[in-house]
Write a structure and sequence with these properties.
It is a single chain. This protein has 338 residues and is of the alpha+beta class. The protein has a domain of 124 residues: 2-Layer Sandwich (Beta Polymerase, domain 2), CATH 3.30.460. It has 14 helices and eleven strands. Strands 3-4-5-2-1-8-9 form a seven-stranded mixed β-sheet. A two-stranded antiparallel ribbon has the order 6-7. A two-stranded parallel ribbon has the order 10-11.
Length: 338
């Protein structure tokens, strides 16, 4: 039983970047031996185990063969005869196909270190085109601070095109597509993700509405709201967007409606819908994004006015009276601004 650190964590360490987590490959072992040593099995399709102390993932060395469509359409083969090099060969890019032994020795059968030096994404083998998820992972890699300026090898672009032409991007699950997108929104260079989708014709079918890029927000949800704004709030309607992100996007849409509205009564209605007392922190965060920069001061005054209203005087009042009194409070607070 031999254990090797593999993948992105080795790449990052070689580049002087502290990895967030580590992946490990185990050679010359079996599921029975792993469990005997205290590892907890978690893999459904192939043997992956959690370390009993660190909870890091340890996978048995394996090979794979295309047997269906999509990123799950593979048959995996593993036993003690599978070598480390065979396991590394199935990985996406050479920079991710590097291993490190327990004594610190680097195993680099596909010259990934040279591609790191030359800042190149290069496919490890022609099998790259068998997994459509890899092009979305590539787009996400481009959001990393230490990888965003890497180029793509010309031969690798051919495999991008092969994936696009196969139509297998449509076989990906919406959950997995959103997972990659959400990770990209957390990256330092989120724009690179969407630019990559456009540059390499990766929009169909999940990002067909993508035409403009603007994501200067200070959080993933603000970046997403800004992307929705410049794409007419039609972006990625088939993806499972979390409710907290939908909330920020909806609030931005309402604020823009407020700014475009000419009717005082309609403005008050929108302001009431914003529920400023409950959403003040989110709204103040939204004001930092680019589409609202010109009207930020005006919107801050509106928020400040509403937060100064003493709504406690509504306590004990009945239905219609509460509504009338609340309307009066909004009118009085905003009469100098609207």
């Amino acid at each position: 039983m031999k254990v090797f650190q593999v993948g992105g964590s080795v790449r990052d360490q070689l580049m002087g970047v502290q990895p967030k987590d580590k992946d490990w490959v185990v050679v010359n072992s079996s599921p029975e031996e792993m469990e005997k040593n205290g590892f907890k099995p978690i893999g459904k399709e192939f043997p992956v185990f959690l370390h009993p102390e660190t909870n890091e993932e340890y996978a048995l060395a394996r090979t794979e063969k295309k047997s269906g469509v999509g990123y799950k359409g593979f048959t995996f083969y593993f036993d003690s005869s599978v070598t480390l090099e065979q396991d590394l060969e199935r990985r996406d890019f050479t920079i991710n196909a590097i291993a490190k032994s327990s004594d610190g020795k680097i195993i680099d059968p596909f010259n990934g270190q040279l591609d790191i030096k030359n800042k190149i994404f290069r496919h490890t083998s022609p099998a790259f085109s068998e997994d459509p998820l890899r092009v979305l992972r590539f787009a996400r890699f481009k959001t990393y601070g230490h990888l965003h300026d890497f180029d793509v090898a010309k031969n690798t672009v051919k495999f991008f095109k092969k994936i696009v032409n196969s139509g297998e991007l449509s076989t990906l699950s919406s959950d997995r597509v959103w997972m990659e997108t959400q990770r990209a929104l957390s990256g330092d260079h989120t724009k690179e993700f969407f630019q990559t989708l456009i540059e390499y014709n990766l929009k169909d079918p999940w990002f067909n509405e993508l035409s403009e890029i603007a994501c200067n927000g200070n959080s993933p949800e603000n970046k997403w709201a800004e992307m929705q704004c410049v794409n007419h709030f039609q972006l990625c309607r088939s993806l499972p967007i979390p409710n907290y992100m939908k909330r920020v996007t909806n609030l931005l849409s309402q604020i823009l409606g407020l700014l475009q509205c000419n009717s005082k009564q309609e403005k008050i209605r929108i302001i009431q819908t914003l529920n400023i007392p409950r959403n003040s922190n989110v709204l103040n965060s939204i004001l930092q994004i680019q589409p609202l920069s010109r009207d930020k001061e005006y919107l801050e005054k509106i928020i400040s006015c509403i937060l100064r209203i003493d709504f406690s005087i509504l306590a004990g009042l009945s239905g219609s009276i509460v509504s009338e009194k609340k309307q009066f409070l909004y009118d009085e607070a905003l009469k100098k601004l609207l």
